[in-house]
Design brief:
By secondary structure, the chain is α/β, with parallel strands linked by helices. It is about 45% helix and about 15% strand. The chain folds into two domains: about 160 residues, P-loop containing nucleotide triphosphate hydrolases (Rossmann fold, 3-Layer(aba) Sandwich), CATH 3.40.50.300; about 80 residues, no CATH class. The protein has a five-stranded parallel beta sheet with strand order 2-5-8-1-9, sandwiched between helices. Strands 3-4 form a two-stranded antiparallel sheet.
Length: about 260
């Protein structure tokens, strides 16, 4: 899937191509659906790096980051695989043989005490496994990207260790072009689909809605039902709100010789 890079992200990519002897870290801020996680995948692809992803949550702790326990192995009595590396330990291990981009998605969801566990790693690259034992990352090969939807402010100590990148939603014309290219749905239908979407809707949801409404809808009521399922509007979408979309679908199908 092609990523549409914006100027602020282009500068980040160029900066991360420069040689460094420390861990490079970025905080990607912006509303849901603006492409924060997709940008981390794009970075890894462009830099030829391994990609390590982890979704953070309110109960994330040191075991998820450094060294945890594989519950399935415990239940199975597999003592050799009970201990498992956490996300930062895996990234540190991979960095010893090549470049790595690690994504800590939704860092703003974690408790402050978990956030503070990142500070020494971002500065030194050390991952504690147990008392007296740690994995040392090759800092020059490691990029850490954290994302935030702004649920809570992050600590100043964390912010001092990262560049902050404010990511803007794609404009509607770009969304329409991408959805049309990826789905094969006529641009006129994609435009009407995007107009129906709530402001915080993601590109992925618009793409799914456009693909399904083009392939499945047989009436304006079908359009309204699919919009309710995909576009996260308050309450149900009324058929009258989808009349223009249904008209575009019928016109495009007739032009292509597809039965409505």
């Amino acid at each position: 899937m092609k990523y549409v890079i914006r100027p602020e992200e282009g500068l980040v990519l160029r900066a991360f191509r420069l040689p460094a002897n420390t861990i490079r870290a970025a905080l990607l801020e912006g509303p849901p659906g603006c492409g924060k996680t997709a940008f981390t995948q794009f970075l890894a692809q462009e830099l030829g790096a391994s990609y390590v992803y982890h979704l953070m949550h309110s109960w994330s702790d040191d075991q998820e980051l450094f060294m945890g326990i594989d519950v399935a192995s415990v239940v199975a009595g597999d003592a050799t695989n009970v201990r498992q590396l956490g996300v930062l330990a895996r990234a540190a291990e991979l960095s010893q043989t090549g470049p790595v981009v690690v994504c800590l998605d939704e860092l703003d969801k974690v408790q402050e005490r978990t956030e503070y566990l990142l500070l020494d790693f971002l500065q030194s690259g050390r991952c504690p496994l147990r008392p007296g034992v740690h994995i040392q990352a090759e800092c020059s090969r490691l990029i850490v990207c954290c994302t935030s939807n702004g649920e809570r402010p992050l600590a100043d100590a964390t912010l001092r260790r990262m560049r902050r990148v404010r990511m803007r939603p794609l404009d509607r014309d770009t969304v329409v072009r991408i959805v049309a290219e990826q789905t094969g749905v006529p641009a006129s239908v994609c435009r009407m689909a995007a107009k129906l979407a709530a402001e915080e809707i993601s590109l992925q949801e618009i793409r799914s809605f456009a693909a399904e409404v083009w392939a499945l809808a047989q009436s304006v009521q079908d359009c309204a039902l699919l919009a309710t399922q995909w576009l996260r509007r308050e309450g149900e979408v009324h058929p009258s709100q989808c009349a223009a979309l249904w008209a575009e679908i019928r016109a495009a199908r007739q032009q292509q010789g597809v039965a409505s």
